[in-house]
Design brief:
61% of the residues lie in helices and 0% in strands. It contains seven helices and no strands.
């Protein structure tokens, strides 16, 4: 009995960056959808830069690389098909022998793959620059984020307080405490939603006053305690 299909144990070396070199067209950007809160359309997304046409020399290198890779794969497949009563151990030994026998070709393919990848990266179109959020908007967003955290902490604290309050109470008191807790939780959740909406509106308002169609905050790390205190002092003035 001959083994006609190689097992997936093989040749990481032969699978060098094939997804990186495949020319798959980019999917179209999703359409603008109405915002759930205001009903207005979302900001217009930037157009994707046109895909750069690869140079003929680079195309030839890609074709040559794939041809040599396919040839080695074909030889290995034929070697494995000749194994009688194949087992994982026999296939492993045959694969190692193949890699040693064709080591120079495999190393050359690895080096060729690295060069082709570097040329593909260099051929990528430059991304359009994105404007940064102003310091004023950053301060407003940080202040709103701090408010959101305070409400969230109050929401969590109310749960712990409820557990303590429910100890040694009558059924009527228990029902009253639960009703008050549910109403308090509802109010806190509503406050959090309102703060989140204000954050979105602040960023959208800043977006509409810029020439670009996208906006990003340069520093995405959480604010330090010093920054938080400074933002609070600024907000209280």
């Amino acid at each position: 009995m001959k083994h006609s299909k190689p097992l997936p144990i093989l040749l990481v070396a032969l699978n060098l960056a094939v997804p990186l070199f495949s020319q798959v067209p980019s999917p179209p950007p999703p359409p603008d959808l109405p915002d759930d809160n205001t009903g207005a359309l979302a900001p217009t997304r930037p157009e994707r830069p046109a895909r750069t046409e690869l140079a003929n020399t680079l195309k030839e290198k890609l074709e040559d690389y794939k041809t040599k890779q396919d040839n080695l794969r074909k030889v290995l497949k034929e070697r494995l098909a000749q194994i009688d009563n194949p087992t994982r151990e026999k296939i492993r030994i045959a694969t190692q022998a193949f890699e040693l026998l064709h080591k120079d070709q495999l190393d050359a393919l690895k080096a060729r793959a690295a060069l082709i990848k570097a040329e593909l990266v260099a051929a990528r179109p430059a991304r359009p620059s994105k404007p940064l959020v102003s310091d004023e908007i950053k301060t407003q967003v940080i202040s709103l984020q701090n408010q959101h955290k305070e409400v969230h902490d109050a929401l969590q604290a109310s749960k712990a307080e409820l557990k303590i309050a429910l100890q040694d109470v009558t059924d009527e008191e228990r029902a009253q405490l639960l009703d008050e807790f549910r109403q308090n939780q509802k109010d806190l959740h509503e406050q959090m939603k309102n703060i989140q909406r204000q954050i979105r509106e602040t960023l959208h308002a800043s977006l509409n006053t810029t020439d670009a169609t996208t906006i990003r905050i340069e520093d995405r790390r959480p604010p330090s305690r010093t920054e938080v205190l400074e933002a609070r002092r600024t907000a209280d003035r």
